[in-house]
Amino acid sequence: MFVKAPGFTAIAILSIACGTGANVAMFSVADALLLRPMAVPRPSEVLTIGIRRPLLNGFSTPLLLSYPDYVDLRTRSHSFEGLAGSLLRRAGISTAPGAAIRVRIVSLVTANYFDVMHVTPQIGRAFVAADDQIGGRPAAILSHDLWQASYAGDPHVVGRTIRVAGIDCVIVGVAPQSFTGTSRMVFPDLVYLPLSVAPQLNDRLIADLLTDRDLREMTVQGRLQRGVSIEQARAELATLGDALAAFYPRSGDHAVQVRTELAERFAANPIDLGLVILLTTLSSGVLIVACANVAGLLASRAPLRAREISLKLAIGAGRGRLIRQLVTESLLLSLGGGIGGLAIGRAGLVLLRQMRFPSDFIKPPALELDMRALAFTLIVAIASAFVFGLWPAVYTTRVHLSAGARELEDRPARWRLTPRAQLVAVQVALSLALVTVAAFTVQIFTRLSTTGPGFRTTQIAKVDVDTAYRQYSDDQAAAFFAKAVTAARELPTVTHATVTSMMPFWMSDFAAIRPEGAPVSRDETTTPLAASVDEDYFSTLDIPVLRGRAFTANDDENAPHVAIVNETLARRRWPGRDAIGKRFRVEPAGPWIEVIGIARDSKYLFMVEKPQEAIYFPFRQRPSASMVVLAQTNGDSASLVAPLRGVITRLDPDMPAYDAQTMEAFYDARAVGLVGVVMKLVTGIGLMGTSLTMIGLYSLVAFAVARRTREIGIRMAIGATTTDIVALFLRQGMRPAWVGLPLGLVLSGVIVRVLPALVLSTDRLDVRFYAVVVPAVTGLVMLAAFIPARRAARVNPMVALRYD
Fold it and tell me: What per-residue confidence (pLDDT) applies to 410?
């Protein structure tokens, strides 16, 4: 039957392939970013435990705990087999004496980490309690990737020494290949160390990790006891949190939360979640349009199959059996579309894999069509078969002998739409909404391309340096970076050089500040982004200081404490007043700091972010062990990357320099590239939905033309002109469009109000856009109706009169 109707079959399969393919690609994105479970046995039993602290503009940290709180909860909780803590840091690693130091991710874990995760090392052993004691020679477990890359898979690696951050560690095991840690976005070539090593890493952020109850930096995960529910675990830990709050009232909030891994990813990754919701919603819209298309096509075949259905009913076939037959036919179509959808989804993933990350440590999400994607495709195909197949099957079986054919003819009353036309109206509404979202995305991207990030992105090279790898003190680090900047300025073609502790779109830090005169209230404490920079930072990145002055070399540890704030912070913290000369201090109880300048706002975290508060400190007054060295050139920035890295090596041959690249490459990978890929995806989805709508409307009018061929002949025989026939069918074809367009405008209005919140943007769709989008969609819909209407006008009246 499908072979005898190749046009119908091809359109139906192509429609379902488009809808399924879009959803398969989006599922792969959602799976890679949020949905894929941890690679441990029975991952659903593993929960995240911690305390959430609010940050700037609604952002929040993941659930985190301090080490002392972790010990108390581990000791007193009975709902879990065990609680394991982990913490990711960067560290310089040397695999042999005299070998080059490479920067890698180190996972500091509690001794029971592998036991709680039910992971058995491939070689050697897991950590034991003795490994987590301060003193003695630290133990280390290698990831499978690092073992292969650095030791060529040597089975006798256990017992050898690996040097991490200047500390000699004995290798006691190698993790299995299937286990790549509990962090999804970190390259798997990492080293696991006991948490007790943290004080020896000379990292100020975690120097007091084992003793400071207020230092909440650990990710804690627990595996539920058999027979214990999540609700029971929540209740127990809430009680324990109240007890901690009573014992340690000065340690802030102790509202311990328990979340599944999936819920924690949703809460801790608002940008990823917003992107997934946006793309999934759009791809679901395409699938609905595709299902409406095929449902309309199947319904249009009802009169053509009236004789067949009537005959089967006459010889005793039950209506339920006929419906099962027709739904089975729909299932075959959907399976064919599912196969085509896999091909379309694979093509979409090729586009998505263009996303890059500007770091040696963070890996892009693993987008792949694995068994879970194949299972999702099968589910979507089967579900779509019932969505688009059940109603036409019920509709078709309403026929009763020869009278049924006339009953199902597509002849609507003047004041209502046929069921097929109603489906087309829904398609028009959805396609207008999809095109509006695509237009809105283009608007955001165009504005970003026009306004830029607010700082210079060309003719700059960068290299990251962390002096903690060499265990430098604060004074040694400040002296090292001062020498590095001086040496960078002496390179040929370099015009400016600077250092900063915060790299836009990548490295961020925060400082809790309290303006002078503000009440002692949590509401009066703000947490702006904070950066330590030198006196040449603003000229290197072309960020103007609008009022006041920039830093000088004299703003050192012996000078009065000063800072520069951006426009947003000045406006919000000192509304209607001049921020220059105002004072604040960094909590808790830091020295008073005077505002000496106001810098222009720029982008700090994301290209589509809302205005952020930011503050700059002189790096000599607020030293940082980890800094980025930037150099501006009047030549090619790519030719400056190697010399800039060489500056670091000459100052200290053992100091690792990493993430060395041009600012153009960094900016493109971190900011422009991701937005560009999203724009292409959204635009493609919008065009796909509109194309399917055109196919649906075309098939509706074409079917009407085919069913009314004899009528066309009579009309032309009694004097109807070609224009009359075209107008007749054009009116009939556009009738569902006139219903769908207003519905689409309402739906678009809702979406464009929600969309900015999903992408953390302040943009609003320019209403003038509707003056372009609505006529464009109307024109395409009219074209889809005009083509078969024009064909109807070319019918030979004599042939039409003999048409049966």
Answer: 46
Residues whose CB falls within 8 Å of the CB of residue 323, separated by 6 or more in sequence, listed in order: 390, 393, 394, 397
- Find, among 117, 149, 112, the residue nearest to 128 by Cα: 112
Predicted TM-score of the model (pTM): 0.72
The C-alpha angle with vertex 747 and arms to 776 and 784, in degrees rounded to 5, equals 35
**pLDDT for 594 beyond 70:** yes
Region of poorest pLDDT, from 66-75, 162-171, 743-752: 743-752
Q: Residue 457: which of 755, 187, 223, 664 has the closest Cα?
A: 664
Cβ neighbour number for residue 653 with a 10 Å cutoff: 9
Rg for the chain (alpha carbons), in Å? 33
Least confident of 226-230, 363-367, 450-454: 363-367
Nearest Cα neighbor of 358 from 650, 628, 600, 541 is: 628
Adjacent-strand bridge partners of 186: 362
Task: For residues 655-684, give the mean pLDDT.
Answer: 79
Q: How many Å apart are CA 360 and CA 580, to the nearest integer?
A: 40
Nearest to 423 by CA among 699, 45, 115: 699
Cβ neighbors of 402 (< 8 A, separation 6 or more) are 306, 307, 310
Contact 500, 455 (CB under 8 A): no
pLDDT recorded at residue 674: 67
Per residue in 288-335, pLDDT (tens digit) is 888 887 877 777 776 666 677 777 777 777 777 877 887 888 888 888
In 3-state terms, what secondary structure has residue 536? coil
Q: Answer yes or no: are the C-beta atoms of 694 and 787 closer than 8 Å.
A: no
Spatial distance between the Cα atoms of 353 and 788, rounded to a whole number of angstroms:
41
Look at residue 792 in the predicted model and tell me its pLDDT: 73
Sign of CA dihedral 200, 204, 210, 211: positive
Spatial separation of the C-alpha atoms in residues 441 and 680, rounded to whole Å: 9
Pairing of β 191-194 and β 102-109: parallel
Q: How many CA atoms lie within 13 Å of 315's alpha carbon, on the beta-carbon side?
A: 6
Q: Tell me how far CA of residue 504 lies from CA of 121, 385, 508, in angstroms.
A: 39, 48, 7
Asked if 619 and 501 count as a contact pair (C-beta separation under 8 A), the reply is yes
Give 631's strand partners.
461, 497
